[in-house]
């Protein structure tokens, strides 16, 4: 099965309707990730065909549960979930933040090559990041434990905003260690086509 067919089938399974142009952009993103990964070590997944499920569909499984349009992707790394979000929701504004210069070099190139006018890349430590406007949603994928994620990004959350962390197994222990003023809004089990692993989206807000 081609990357495009795998992506199309996976998106259909998730209930997402992508345009042909969006599908081509996501395939190109996987090809860029594969190419740059050989030098920059962006992901432990080495097989191109596995990147579709492990990175693109894994990100897109959370797309319908994101409540906001001005979004920060913390520790974006190879661009997950920020780049798939930006491709599929051109009406959203994404900021991809990472402190690693090699990773942000890749992200900047990917944003240029994919023509993502709605995505900005920032190379900065999250605790030092001071944008003019705070964010509706702060998301991350494999960035840190929930309490640390909240601690490092609290100053970046807009009033009424929320955190949306992509996690593997249900994070009981991490939830138990959240600060008292942080409430769990929802923990959504995600089913990722082509991926036989537990996935959850944890939505958090200030109490």
List the helices and strands and how they pair.
Layout: H1 3-13, H2 20-40, H3 48-60, E1 70-74, H4 82-88, E2 93-98, H5 101-114, E3 119-123, E4 135-141, H6 146-153, E5 157-167, H7 172-176, E6 182-189, E7 200-206
Parallel strand pairs: 1-2, 1-4, 2-3, 4-5
Antiparallel strand pairs: 5-7, 6-7
Concise overview:
The protein is an alpha/beta fold. Helices cover 38% and strands 24% of the residues.
Summarize the structure in words:
It is a single chain. The chain has 207 residues and is an alpha/beta fold. The protein has a single domain (3-206), classed as Vaccinia Virus protein VP39 (Rossmann fold, 3-Layer(aba) Sandwich), CATH 3.40.50. The protein contains seven helices and seven strands, in the order H-H-H-E-H-E-H-E-E-H-E-H-E-E. The protein has helices spanning 3-13, 20-40, 48-60, 82-88, 101-114, 146-153, 172-176, and strands at 70-74, 93-98, 119-123, 135-141, 157-167, 182-189, 200-206. It has a seven-stranded mixed beta sheet, with helices on both faces. Helix 6 (146-153) links the parallel strand 4 and strand 5 (157-167). Helix 2 (20-40) crosses helix 3 and helix 2 (20-40) packs antiparallel against helix 5. The longest helix has 21 residues, at 20-40. The chain is globular. The N and C termini lie far apart (47 Å). The mean pLDDT is 95.
Provide tags for this entry.
207 residues, alpha/beta, seven-stranded mixed β-sheet, 7 helices, 7 strands, 24% strand, rRNA (guanine-N7-)-methyltransferase activity, Ribosomal RNA small subunit methyltransferase G, SAM-dependent_MTases_sf, EC 2.1.1.170, rRNA_ssu_MeTfrase_G
């Amino acid at each position: 099965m081609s990357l495009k067919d795998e992506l199309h089938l996976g998106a259909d399974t998730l209930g997402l309707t992508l345009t042909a142009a969006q599908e081509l952009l996501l395939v190109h993103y996987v090809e860029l990730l594969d190419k740059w990964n050989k030098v920059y070590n962006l992901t432990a997944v080495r097989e191109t065909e596995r990147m579709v499920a492990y990175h693109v569909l894994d990100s897109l499984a959370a797309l319908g549960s994101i409540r906001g349009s001005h979004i920060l992707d913390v520790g974006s790394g190879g661009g997950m979930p920020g780049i798939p979000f930006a491709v599929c929701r051109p009406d959203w504004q994404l900021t991809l933040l990472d402190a690693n210069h090699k990773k942000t070099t890749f992200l900047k190139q990917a944003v240029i090559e994919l023509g993502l006018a709605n995505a900005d890349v920032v190379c900065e430590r999250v605790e030092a990041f001071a944008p003019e406007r705070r964010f509706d949603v702060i998301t991350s994928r494999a960035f840190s434990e929930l309490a640390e994620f909240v601690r490092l990004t609290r100053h970046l959350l807009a009033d009424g905003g929320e955190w949306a962390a992509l996690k593997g197994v249900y994070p009981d222990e991490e939830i138990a260690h959240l600060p008292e003023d942080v409430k769990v809004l929802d923990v959504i089990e995600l089913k990722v086509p082509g991926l036989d692993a537990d996935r959850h989206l944890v939505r958090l807000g200030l109490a």
